[in-house]
């Protein structure tokens, strides 16, 4: 889960840095990423998980973050 969240965040930053987004799109991306982080925190609390519990070791594909 954490890997996917970070990938989405990095892609959003790349799009912003590339300059291909309008101001309202940048605002929407920022708001969406903040809401995603809040929701992930709520889910971790609900299920009694720590952030590292959502990190999976995928071997050569991706090491835990």
| Inertia-based shape | flat
* Largest sheet: number of strands, sense, barrel closure: none
User: How many individual domains?
Assistant: 1
Mean pLDDT: 83
Rounded to the nearest angstrom, the distance between the terminal CA atoms is 11 Å
What is Rg? 14 Å
Describe this structure in words.
Helix content is about 65%, strand content about 0%. With about 60 residues, it is mainly α. The chain has one domain (about 1-55). Helix 1 (about 1-20) packs antiparallel against helix 2 (about 25-45). The chain is flat and about 40 Å long.
Describe the structure in brief.
With 65 residues, this protein is an all-alpha fold. The chain has two helices and no strands.
Please give the structural blueprint.
Blueprint: H1 2-18, H2 23-47
Helix pairs in contact: 1-2
Key terms:
0% strand, 65 residues, mainly alpha, 2 helices
């Amino acid at each position: 889960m954490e890997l996917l969240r970070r990938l989405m965040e990095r892609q959003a930053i790349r799009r912003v840095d590339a300059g291909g987004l309008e101001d309202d799109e940048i605002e929407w991306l920022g708001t969406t990423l903040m809401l995603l982080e809040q929701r992930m925190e709520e889910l971790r609390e609900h299920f009694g998980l720590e952030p590292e519990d959502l990190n999976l070791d995928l071997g050569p594909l991706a090491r835990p973050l």
